[in-house]
Amino acid sequence: MSTSVISNYIHGKYQQQGNADLFDVIYPATGETLYLVEEASPALLEQAIVSACQGQAQWAAMTAVERARILQKAASMLRERNDELARIEVLDTGKPWQEAVEVDVQTGADAIEYFANLSQSMMGSQQPIGNDFFYTRHEPLGVCFGIGAWNYPLQIACWKSAAALAAGNAMIFKPSEETPRGACLLAEIFTAAGVPQGVFNVVHGDGKVGNYLTEHSEVAKVSLTGEVGTGKKVMAAAAGTLKQVTMELGGKSPLVVFEDADINEAVTGAMLANFYTQGEVCTNGTRVYVHESVYQQFMQQLLERTQRNIVVGDPMNPDTNLGALISAQHLARVLEYIKHGSDEGATLACGGAQLKPQNFEGGNFIEPTIFTDCTDDMKIVQEEIFGPVMSVLTFSDEDDVIKRANNTRYGLAAGIFTSDIRRAHRVIARLEAGICWINAWGNSPAEMPVGGYKESGIGRENGVETLKSYTQTKSIYVGMDTLEGPF
Ligand code: NAP
Fold first, then answer.
1. How far is the C-alpha of 487 from the C-alpha of 478, rounded, in Å?
2. Which of 22, 189, 283, 344 could be joined to 36 by an S-S link, Cβ 3.0–4.6 Å?
3. How far apart are CA 78 and CA 90, in angstroms?
4. Could you report the per-residue pLDDT of 196-226, keeping only the tens digit for each?
5. What count of other Cβ atoms lies within 10 Å of the Cβ of residue 466?
């Protein structure tokens, strides 16, 4: 059987190129090629820009209610096709079916629905100045460019396009080369729901393609989800034309377990914060600080539940709760970090090895891994690993643990477990992170703004403020009296 080829989705349909460079997409659980993808040539990228400009003009001319109706239809279609889309996400990413079927498509649809509803109440303001007055309009930016990471491909495409489209923009989206299919299906769904041609185009390729559009003078804003290093490159490239940017980048988030925490819940939180999506989550709480008085109890339960309850293997098996890492290269990188942890003197309390489950010997599987006896200066405690590797540290003093938690260039997420309501809010207020959880971990509803402090990002996704970040404010001053001047 010949391998299928996916092309770029431009102006409401797939556009094949005669002699495109092709790259392959691998199923992380087996190493087999799933399909091939046409890389967008510069000529095709120019076509995507022309199409997006045309589409945006038509889209912006519609009323917010008309646009919202179409976007709501798209959200319903995503939900109707939940299982089919979830399966595609599992194949592209290697994540467990049990997560994708519950989370990936639904949270994408939620954001589209949320911004569709919100956009109808976006209003300008009016203020009198003597007899004169001024008013403001929130106008779309024009053509926006979204760049996705590979860990939540469809969700990221939905979150970026939801706010951009609801505000009347067009979006050209470049998914990660490793996971390009979800964005294409979203494009098909948008078209079927009635989004005009060109309003959501999908282009394929690596950093070259990303850079081409980031530098393009017709692109008004770039929204990236990716690593901090990529964020710096994209921001530098966007500076040439002074584009607006949203940067959703990496993290090394702290999770603090106080002595008065419910230990059962704290262990659940720590496991969610390290093993969900096999640790490939930007907000992962990989630095777990446990108060020394509850450390033994916490560790005993953590190790017992990790060894007993984690099922690694076939991602499509509904019982599997730890899938395959995205690539062999990434697996090697995670294993290298684990070696570093042991070399630096941390104790490997469990896991640490590559796994080759039966019938999935070619996949990128790894044991859930927990290090104890960690210190703040260790590489495994400082750098984002992006795999199922938890570092446990101890503390005895509230002020001290806050200082240690904040001692990082990252600031994406943070969480605490405590039953003391005053401590909960006092500590959270002092943690330098954009996404915080108290007695919870990972929840990210469309209503809640998310984004990073410090090097973890700029701007926010989701929540009320994000819609406005896809608009520019026009102020209009209206003179009611006769105009006078010195000339
Ligand atoms: P990445 O390597 O930074 O890539 C992200 C995207 O940027 C990919 O589509 C990539 O293309 C593209 N890209 C690379 N170089 C570029 C350039 N010079 N110009 C324009 N685009 C460029 O990140 P990843 O490995 O896909 O994803 C993992 C990272 O994303 C982690 O650091 C994680 O924390 C972060 N993340 C953050 C959030 C958040 O909301 N804060 C959410 C999810 C993930 P190709 O890969 O196709 O070459």
1. 21
2. 22
3. 16
4. 999 999 999 999 999 999 999 999 999 999 9
5. 28
Write the CB contacts of 43 (distance below 8 Å, at least 6 apart in sequence).
Answer: none
Q: Please, are residues 311 and 324 in contact by the beta-carbon 8 Å criterion?
A: no
Pair 303, 349: CB distance under 8 Å: yes
Phi, psi dihedral angles at 369 (to 5 degrees): -125, 135
pLDDT at 438: 98
0.85 cut: is pTM over it? yes
How far is the C-alpha of 68 from the C-alpha of 325, rounded, in Å?
37
> What is the spatial distance between Cα 255 and Cα 272, in angstroms, rounded to a whole number?
11
> What is the DSSP code string of 190-218?
HHHHTPPTTSEEE---SHHHHHHHHH-TT
Closest ligand 1 atom number to CA of residue 326: 25
Q: Is the CB of 227 under 6 A from ligand 1?
A: yes
Q: Is the CB–ligand 1 distance for residue 234 below 6 Å?
A: yes
* Residue nearest ligand 1's atom 48 by CA: 206
Does the Cβ of 270 fall within 6 Å of ligand 1? no
341: its two tokens: 């942890």
DSSP string, 259-306: TTS-HHHHHHHHHHHHHGGGG--TT---EEEEETTTHHHHHHHHHHHH
Is 206 close to ligand 1, i.e. is its CB under 6 Å away?
yes
Counting runs of H as helices and runs of E as strands, what totals does the chain give?
16, 23
The catalytic residues are 160, 248, 282, 461
* Ligand 1 binding pocket includes 282 (Cβ within 6 Å): yes
Under a CB-based contact definition with an 8 Å cutoff, are residues 138 and 473 in contact? yes
